[in-house]
Write a structure and sequence with these properties.
The complex is a heterodimer of chains A (354) and B (227). Chain A contains 6 helices and 9 strands; from the N terminus they run αβββββββββααααα. With 354 residues, chain A is an alpha+beta fold. In chain A, strands 1-2-5-4-3-7-8 form a 7-stranded antiparallel beta sheet, with no helix packed on it. By secondary structure, chain B is mainly alpha-helical. Chain B is 83% helix and 0% strand. The longest helix of chain B is centred in the middle third of the chain and has 31 residues. In chain B, 41% of the residues are buried. Classes of the chains: A alpha+beta (354), B mainly alpha (227).
């Protein structure tokens, strides 16, 4: 029972992860502030006010339309906008009255709503045909930020939207692959440090973990490619992290090809262990050092490939860490099954030969 | 051999021997140079002297990379089982690896120098002038050094495994990608007119990679070598 408990635990974790990944709703956010190119009617009087349509995603404005307030912000400058009409949960018409001289052309848009809390659209408004004076000030209110009054949800991220769920699938693939390649690395060290004529048990371990690791690497590439298509607009982009991932998969494919081209068991064990150690160290250089020198599209950019800088809030962490642990347990389990299968196959061959 | 030879004289002897064998059989190296010049001439036929910066850079590195790969992929007298069995008992494996790495550095340095010269001759120096060409050439030499340190190990591994050229390519090309990433970026930086001082860290990185490859090879080669 104890032997099985970690397997059961892994499956339970993955079941929890899959359930929450696909059922937890996405939090509300702002998509855009669109110029309607017409004058708005405020308080029944036709003023010189331009109308904008504010579009949200997953917001709940219709539930309490009177409590929606919209604010423009540029550094310390804050100014309130008039909410002309709340059309539905995600659409509202906003009236914009501004003095002739304002401090900036581009403004951040904030909204306050008792259900959604304070939402934020960076550089959401760009004004043409106004005179800009950076010394001008425009502050007619103090902003108090609301917490949202919503059940458990994933954070809204611009451009990522619903695909934030991919975090639970894409990132753990790489973590699991690294774990398995680490197992292979240690097995290769032990294979080489045996005295001459030792068994090839460690070699079989290295082979099994690389085979399973390759599955996770390919899945990582596929999930990443899908995500890149959605957020960056292309199936493949030039990014140090992607180069590293591709090289990793190619290197281990080379490892498996090398194994296939050597007949002698002992020579195969030694040569593939040497190549594995060589490759693993270079991959470490490639994935840990090289991305720090170049810019990356990946989160945590500015040269830091670490994952701490992901915008992980508590709702993501509650799923992400179990996901990493669950996938790692599943990967280890797969590796052990693969190892047993290889060993049984070998035994079968030996019996056949006798 | 009544007296044990010192490591240094061993290395010198092995290196001299390799060069002597190479020069005795001149058609080998002539074949490499014809391959390289023919590749350059193909590029010239396709683009003329007016290749865009990016194409110039890309073609230069593709030709240099494959000329280098071609140079190390020809079989060696030492790969023969009998010769290896003799060497295993007479030379420290590390000495042999160092000698072979040095030999590859010379060979690849020569091949890439000729290739680069042919490239400048045929495809023109519109994008490189004066010192920029010298800096570019420094990058070419360091890249061939990095290739030499990596491929000395990979070639020995592939020949031990009994695979031919395809195995060297399969094992070596993925590992060489980091080097190519750095070199191509360095080349395009120079061509875009970025000052040498601001892009010289790429050279440092190439040197670091070479040192890393050498150190790894030095540690791991004995396991590859023994029976």
């Amino acid at each position: 029972m104890i032997q099985r408990s970690w397997k059961i635990g892994g499956i339970a974790l993955l079941a929890y992860v899959f359930w929450t990944t696909f059922t937890v709703p996405l939090g509300p956010g702002l998509l855009e502030l669109r110029n309607l190119e017409r004058a708005a009617v405020v308080d029944g009087v036709d003023q010189k006010v331009s109308a904008y349509e504010l579009i949200g995603l997953g917001t709940h404005w219709a539930s309490r339309p009177d409590d929606l307030s919209v604010v423009l912000r540029k550094k310390e400058n804050l100014t309130a906008l008039t909410v002309v009409e709340v059309i539905d949960d995600t659409h509202a018409v906003i009236g914009l009255t501004l003095p002739d001289t304002i401090p900036s052309r581009s403004w951040d848009v904030l909204i306050n709503h008792p259900v959604d809390g304070t939402l934020f659209l960076q550089n959401g408004l760009f004004l043409d045909g106004v005179s800009v004076d950076e010394t001008a000030t425009l502050t007619d209110l103090a902003l108090t930020e609301f917490p949202s009054d919503l059940p458990h949800h994933f954070p809204f991220q611009p451009r990522i939207f619903e695909t934030i769920r991919n975090l639970m699938l894409h990132v753990p693939m790489w973590f699991t692959m690294f774990l398995l390649m680490g197992i292979a690395f240690i097995a290769s060290i032990r294979q080489l440090s045996q005295t001459a004529g030792g068994s090839s048990l460690f070699d079989l371990r290295a082979e099994a973990s690389v085979q399973v690791g390759m599955v996770f690497g390919v899945l990582g590439l596929l999930t990443g490619s899908l995500w890149a298509r959605y957020t960056w607009g292309a199936w493949w982009v030039d990014d140090p992290q992607l180069n590293g991932a591709l090289v990793t998969v190619l290197v281990y494919a080379g490892y498996l090809i090398l194994r296939g081209s050597v007949e002698d068991e002992r020579l195969k064990a030694r040569l593939s262990a040497v190549y594995n150690l060589f490759a693993f160290v270079i991959l470490m250089i490639l994935l840990m050092v090289l991305p720090r020198f170049t810019e990356s599209l990946h989160p945590g950019k500015g040269g830091n490939p670490g994952f701490n800088s992901y915008d992980l809030d508590s709702s993501l962490r509650a799923v992400f860490y179990p996901a990493v642990l669950g996938w790692m347990l599943l990967g280890t389990w797969m590796y052990r099954i693969r190892l047993q299968a290889t060993q049984l196959n070998q035994k079968l061959h030996r019996l056949n030969d006798q | 051999m009544s007296q044990p030879m010192s490591a240094l004289s061993n290395i010198r002897f092995l290196l001299q021997h390799a060069i002597r064998v190479e020069l005795r059989n001149r058609h080998g190296i002539a074949g490499l140079l014809v391959f390289a010049v023919a590749a350059v001439y193909t590029c010239y036929q396709a683009t003329g002297t007016h290749a865009e910066q990016e194409s110039w850079n890309a073609l230069a590195w593709v030709v240099l990379l494959f000329a280098g790969f071609n140079a190390v992929s020809k079989p060696w007298a030492d790969d023969n089982e009998g010769v290896r069995a003799f060497l295993v008992h007479t030379v420290r494996p590390q000495d042999w690896l160092i000698a072979r790495t040095l030999y590859y550095m010379l060979l690849l340095g020569a091949v890439s120098t000729v290739t680069f010269a042919a490239f400048l001759l045929f495809l023109g120096m519109d994008h490189l002038s004066g010192w920029t060409a010298v800096h570019y050439y420094a990058g070419v030499l360091l890249t061939s050094t990095a290739l030499a340190t990596l491929l000395a190990m990979i070639q020995a591994l592939a020949s031990r495994a009994g695979g031919g050229f395809s195995l060297i390519a399969v094992l070596g090309l993925p590992l060489i990608i980091p080097v190519i990433l750095v070199s191509t970026r360095y080349g395009s930086d120079l061509m875009r007119g970025i000052a040498f001082g601001d892009t010289a860290h790429h050279l440092l990185f190439l040197a670091t990679l070479s040192a890393g490859f050498s150190a790894l090879g030095y540690i791991l080669f004995p396991y590859l070598w023994r029976d």
